[in-house]
Design goal:
The chain is an alpha/beta fold. Helix content is 44%, strand content 15%. The longest helix is centred in the middle third of the chain and has 22 residues.
Length: 266
């Protein structure tokens, strides 16, 4: 099991600064969020030489690019095809950074589109990029987020896709927050497909971030379930707009997660 943090936790940090923080505070990787104006500079517009330089920086720091977090979304027929094209480019970017994951969204369901048609549209979109992802050694992970917080709907999509290079990014908060599923129910429904996680604790009503272990989401249980399933991927901290210095919560949060893992392994 490995640990990373997303650049939403450090939007004004350069790539070098993110890598340095990861190394200093015992993270295995970082997760750059592209197309959000973050200072890391990992973007689709980078040339081949610039991508190679980014990879060298990460390798020199001995920190992985755990996942490339994208803004691709597929549940609106008006924009699905354009997002498929972007997803293909994001797969190439990840591969050139030696990253084996990208994060995508299901996205807001288009006007007048029913749930079943949306499931079919998202599944078809993901299936259309799956072979390219496999060829590049990348897995495309759809997040439990937005109109897809219910892990049953995400599982329905992934069952239809039926491809080893399309999986789930389990955001621990959203299924519980929306009363779609408990932690255990979420894992049970997504278990065959969990390839990446987003973690953060908070108040379920105000959504205010709080230290892991003090809020509504049982991350100790998450790690217990993952260990039982021999999960070897990433848990990535997604701390957006936390009203405290990231120098405070970045080391604290990973320390808590690693302590849970040590305790559960004994």
């Amino acid at each position: 099991m490995k640990y990373a943090f997303m650049s939403f936790a450090t939007p004004d940090a350069t790539l070098a600064e993110m890598l340095n923080m990861a190394k200093r505070w015992n993270y295995d990787g970082i997760e750059p969020r592209i197309s959000s104006g973050h200072a890391h500079g990992v973007e689709l517009a980078k040339t081949a030489d610039e991508r190679a330089a980014i990879l060298r920086q990460a390798q020199d720091a001995d920190v992985e690019i755990a996942c490339v977090a994208t803004d691709c979304r597929f549940a609106d027929p008006k924009t699905a095809d354009a997002n498929v094209d972007v997803a293909l480019r994001c797969i190439d970017l990840a591969a050139e950074l030696d990253s084996d994951r990208i994060r995508v969204f299901g996205g807001q369901i288009g006007d007048g589109v029913g749930r079943e048609d949306a499931i079919a549209l998202v599944a078809n979109s993901l299936r259309s990029v799956a072979d390219h992802a496999q060829a590049r050694g990348v897995t495309v992970c759809i997040e439990t987020h937005d109109d897809w917080c219910d892990p049953t709907h995400v599982a329905d999509v992934l069952r239809r896709v039926g491809h080893p290079n399309v999986g789930a990014n389990w955001d621990v908060e959203h299924p519980v927050r929306t009363n779609a599923a408990t932690i255990d129910e979420s894992f049970d429904r997504l278990r065959p497909w969990v390839k990446h996680l987003h973690v953060h604790d908070g108040d379920s009503e105000t959504r205010q971030l709080v230290p892991i272990g003090t809020g509504a989401y049982d991350h100790r249980r998450v790690i217990e379930l993952l260990l039982a399933d021999e999960y070897d991927g990433y848990l990535s901290g997604e701390w957006i707009g936390w009203d405290e210095p990231y120098e405070t919560h970045l080391p604290r949060e990973v320390s808590t997660l690693r302590a849970y893992e040590r305790e559960l392994r004994t």
